[in-house]
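Structure in, sequence out. Go:
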């Protein structure tokens, strides 16, 4: 009887060891792009550090509007995470840009999208050192997945999409009633490109949907994570916000609206954003204002909750 029990215990220990070994060798790689968001990158690193094995940050020598820029990311700004960070630099503009004088608003946006796609996909070239079983997370640097209570090692589906709460201007100023699907993840063996991962639809389609056979965007093995993180959008000074708006994907719309630092300051002080996420892109309601709502800091990541004094400038009392 004792010998039999010993065999059972040994079997259990072996099973545990296999699980342990399996989890130990599954690494998590967080990937993102960078313009000049030093504070939000520091927040991202601190929040994700306990759960992430490597951070890959891709920076381009060109803004999304096509202006040449200097390298802004500096490893020495993040000494605590220096050994975990891989910094990539994309040195050229895409070859397939629309090149002509007097680009339309739509053509400017298309060129921005091509630049964003090229910057994201440049990350794919740096993943050869990782295992097919390693998890790749991708999102903009202000879209931070919540891994505090979610274990990627337990996921059975091919793709993971994080449903995140969106914040504007301040860490606790939220855009209500909006599901924001920013961060997405999968094992490297399922990753075709970073842009492919980013563009997967934010839902799981039935296995009986024939159209999934012909679409990369429609997937039938997707896990949606509730309370999946935080999108800290536009956490910048007025001057930094104007610089961002003139250089990001929607720069043509900003120019069309003839906005200014004065208008930006007015929007922040009134706690509004000058567009409507619920409206379709070509709708006349697209540029209707949306009112933001103050939320309890208890909804914020543990790192921010534990360092409220550091971020008091970015929190509404």
């Amino acid at each position: 009887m004792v010998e039999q029990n010993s065999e059972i215990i040994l079997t259990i220990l072996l099973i545990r060891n296999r699980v342990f070994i399996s989890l130990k060798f599954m690494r998590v790689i967080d990937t993102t792009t960078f313009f000049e968001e030093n504070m939000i990158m520091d927040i991202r690193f601190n929040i994700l550090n306990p759960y992430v094995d490597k951070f890959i940050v891709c920076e381009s020598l060109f803004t999304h509007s096509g202006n040449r820029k200097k390298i802004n990311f500096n490893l020495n700004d993040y000494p605590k995470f220096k050994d975990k960070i891989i910094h990539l630099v994309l040195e050229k503009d895409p070859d397939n840009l629309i090149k002509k004088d007097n680009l339309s608003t739509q053509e400017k946006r298309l060129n921005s999208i091509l630049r964003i796609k090229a910057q994201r996909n440049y990350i794919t070239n740096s993943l050869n050192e990782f295992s097919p079983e390693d998890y790749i997370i991708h999102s903009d640097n202000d879209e931070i997945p919540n891994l505090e209570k979610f274990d990627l090692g337990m996921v059975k589906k091919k793709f993971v999409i994080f449903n995140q709460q969106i914040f504007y201007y301040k860490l606790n100023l939220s855009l209500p009633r909006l599901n924001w699907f920013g961060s997405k993840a999968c094992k490297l063996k399922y990753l075709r490109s970073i842009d492919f991962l980013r563009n997967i639809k934010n839902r799981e389609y039935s296995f009986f949907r024939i159209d999934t056979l012909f679409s990369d965007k429609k997937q039938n093995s997707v896990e949606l994570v509730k309370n999946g993180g935080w999108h800290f959008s536009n956490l910048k000074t007025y001057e930094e916000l104007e610089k961002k708006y003139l250089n990001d994907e929607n720069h043509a719309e900003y120019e069309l609206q003839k906005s200014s630092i004065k208008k930006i300051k007015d929007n922040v002080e009134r706690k509004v954003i000058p567009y409507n996420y619920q409206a379709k892109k070509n709708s006349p309601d697209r540029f209707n204002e949306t009112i933001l709502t103050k939320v309890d800091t208890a909804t914020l990541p543990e790192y921010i909750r534990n360092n409220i004094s550091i971020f008091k400038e970015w929190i509404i009392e």
